[in-house]
């Protein structure tokens, strides 16, 4: 999310320099600016999925391995619903009083970068909660 925020800052800066802020047109910026964020997101997804499967098969009881894999997919779907809820909240609170908001129809007028920074901050808080839970976790003894 931080990489996406930095790219969005660059895109908004380019839109201001070219006078495109009030116009509903695309900013002439190469699509290749998105490579770092997609690379990071893809790598994180791969490591997370493999780590989850390895954890479930190693640490869960034999009879619950399939259930744990299913619960892993359930958490993904719940995360998508949570993402939609966060987007709805951000839209509601940033458009109060007739303001443009962070995510308007014309992205050149908005601040999508603020939304990405918010998601980066929430991800950081999530990582802190994960670290606390991971420190308290007791491994299953090898059988």
TrEMBL record:
It comes from the Eukaryota. It is found in: Membrane. The chain crosses the membrane at residues 38-57, 69-94, 114-133. The keyword Methyltransferase does not apply. Keywords: Membrane, Transmembrane, Transmembrane helix. The lineage of its organism: Eukaryota, Viridiplantae, Streptophyta, Embryophyta, Tracheophyta. GO terms for molecular function: transmembrane transporter activity. It comes from Rubroshorea leprosula. Belongs to the major facilitator superfamily. Proton-dependent oligopeptide transporter (POT/PTR) (TC 2.A.17) family. This is Uncharacterized protein. GO terms for cellular component: membrane.
